[in-house]
Design a protein that fits this description.
The chain is of the alpha+beta class and about 550 residues long. The protein contains 19 helices and 24 strands. The strands form six sheets. Strands 5-4-3-6-2-1-7-8 form an eight-stranded mixed sheet, with helices on one face. It has a five-stranded mixed sheet with strand order 9-10-15-12-13, with helices on both faces. Strands 18-19-20-24 form a four-stranded antiparallel sheet. Strand 4 (about 120-130) and strand 5 form a beta hairpin. Helix 7 runs antiparallel to helix 14. The longest helix is centred in the C-terminal third of the chain and has 19 residues, at about 380-400. The relative contact order is 0.09.
């Protein structure tokens, strides 16, 4: 019979440490938040081997006295709350007293700190397994935490991590999130001796975006500052002439805590309204501030979510702030299709929809078609996306340029080398998936904090722009590690140039599109699984109009 037993203290602490410290990025987040809580104006992050060998975070905050430093590595010790009532009105980023002891159980930790009232000497605390040493040390006011050999004593956790470059992409994403939402703090991130993120700490959101995304993006933006009923909204909105393929470039924070909040992201998109092309997302930084008692920061084990007491009020304030900030800007834009309709519908083979007659177009998105006794409604974007995807997949399968793995790829076109600024996480992701990107036609050289694109996809003779590499990286970054990265890239390439709402088609063009869809292997779903065709039989009309039967 199975018996219930009480776990020993060490096992309990190891389990608790696993909840807080799951990967290098979570260590970085905890240490950066401690630095910000300490009032730091400068935060320097040094990473070696994606954080597995070393994570060092140095700040110029107020530091700690010797007694506090020695106590800080013990579980459930904190200066940020004193009782249960404080949990209901948290005004700091950290509050649970778990970060440093959890890190110490997962790695070798060294903390060096000095408070301005500590006199000449600071304090060094070293935790290595069960051993803790506290000695005097020289340091200016502030704190440095060094974490070495992460998860060396927890091999199962270390084995479960992704490739080092993928793990570093997560680290850089975390750092850039805080760098963008705290523009008054100077951030630097160095990986294996190379500087990958640097912001000036000037207090300007534009300067922070310049340091992360580059001059092109920063110059096409406007700041936002708005207050409604106790909800303050500050940040920066990039014009809709620059968009991305997924919402990860919408950086949000609540009371200074960087997190992916669905309420705020949805409100930002509503604020942009019809300015955004279908399926595209803005680049934006939005920090929402409201009284601590109006938001619960203690709803997620890793503090990755918050709960608003009045989410509708928050969403309304954000949407209004974004809409008003953009209303005064010149946001004219042009759009073109990299794979136009003619390229997608020529050489149609045998089609399952040969006998279908196109009646017309509804709302410049849906094609109404007659098929025997049924009415078919075709989503022109989903249909075009399926067509583009199967043609691209055929191009990859049939040959084209070979990548370093010897696998066939999409044909690539040589271009004059073009510098493409990327965020640090995007650059790391590009290196991780260099072979997969080569298979779909991208060739590039690493150039510091950016890439030099030397070749771009030319699927079916249509040459893509170098900027399409950003969309490819967004496709790879979505969710967890893709099981088939190349297929995800093909889906992304199929989606972006496809017809969207507002693209008017002649009856002839619509007929060509439907015929080409009927020749696809999987005609009834787009590459992402959404339906392309809805069928309404005549009997449904008879029931709706209360007819006893159909015409026949």
């Amino acid at each position: 019979m199975t018996r219930i037993t009480e776990l020993d203290t060490e096992t309990v602490e190891r389990i608790a440490a696993g909840e807080v410290v799951t990967r290098p990025a979570s260590v970085v987040v905890e240490l950066v938040e401690n630095a910000l809580d300490a009032g730091a104006e400068s935060v320097e992050i040094t990473i070696e081997n994606a954080g597995l060998d070393l994570i060092r975070v140095a700040d110029d905050g107020h530091g700690m006295a010797r007694e506090d430093a020695a106590l800080s590595v013990e579980r459930h010790t904190t200066s940020k709350i004193s009782g249960v009532a404080d949990v209901e009105r948290i005004s700091t980023l950290g509050f649970r007293g778990e970060a440093l002891p959890s890190i110490a159980h997962a790695a070798r930790l060294e903390l060096t700190t000095k408070h301005e009232e500590s006199g000449v000497a600071g304090t060094r605390v070293v935790v290595d397994g069960d051993e803790k040493r506290v000695t005097a040390a020289g340091r200016a006011v502030g704190t440095t935490v060094s974490v070495r050999d992460l998860f060396e004593r927890i091999p199962a956790r270390r084995k479960s991590l992704a490739q080092p470059k993928r793990e570093f992409a997560r680290v850089s994403e975390a750092v850039t999130g805080y760098a963008l939402t705290h523009p008054a703090v100077r951030f630097s991130l160095t990986h294996d001796g190379r500087s990958v993120v640097s912001t000036p700490g000037s207090g300007s959101y534009t300067d922070a975006v310049l340091g992360v995304y580059g001059r092109e993006t920063a110059s096409e933006s406007t700041t936002v500052e708005h207050r409604t009923d106790g909800v303050a909204v500050r940040g920066l909105l990039v014009y809709p002439s620059i968009t991305r393929a997924n919402p990860t470039h919408v950086t949000t924070a609540v009371n200074g805590r960087t997190l992916r909040d669905g309420t705020i992201r949805g409100a930002i998109r509503e604020g942009y309204g019809s300015l955004l092309p279908d399926g595209r997302h803005p680049v934006a930084v939005v920090d929402v501030s409201l009284p601590p008692e109006e938001v619960n920061a203690n709803v997620h084990p890793a503090k990755e979510a918050v709960a608003f007491h009045d989410p509708d009020a928050v969403a309304s304030a954000v949407e209004r702030a974004v809409s008003e900030a953009l209303s005064t800007e010149d946001l004219s834009r042009t759009a073109d299709l990299a794979l136009d309709l003619d390229a997608a519908v020529d050489d149609v083979g045998e089609s399952a929809f040969e006998s279908i007659a196109v009646i017309g177009q509804f709302r410049e998105l849906y094609l109404l078609c007659e098929a025997d006794d049924d009415l078919l409604v075709v989503d022109q974007h989903a249909a075009h996306e399926r067509i583009n995807y199967e043609r691209l997949r055929a191009a990859v399968g049939d040959g084209g340029s070979d990548d370093e793995t010897g696998q066939p790829g999409v044909e690539s076109a040589d271009i004059e080398p073009r510098r493409l600024p990327l965020t640090a996480s995007e650059a790391a992701l590009a290196e991780t998936h260099r072979d997969d990107l080569a298979a779909v036609g991208f060739r590039f050289e690493t150039d510091g904090a950016s890439l030099r694109v030397t070749g771009v996809p030319a699927p079916l003779g249509r040459v893509a722009s170098p900027e399409a590499l950003r969309d490819a990286l967004d496709a790879l970054a979505a969710g967890e590690e893709p099981t088939d990265p190349r297929d995800e890239l093909l889906k992304a390439f199929a989606c972006h140039p496809s017809l969207t709402a507002g693209d008017a088609l002649t009856t002839e063009e619509a007929t060509q599109l439907v015929r080409r869809l009927g020749a696809c292997e999987q005609a009834f779903a787009c590459p992402h699984g959404r339906p392309t065709v809805l069928r309404i039989d005549e009997a449904a009309f008879a029931r709706g109009f209360e007819r006893p039967n159909t015409r026949f």
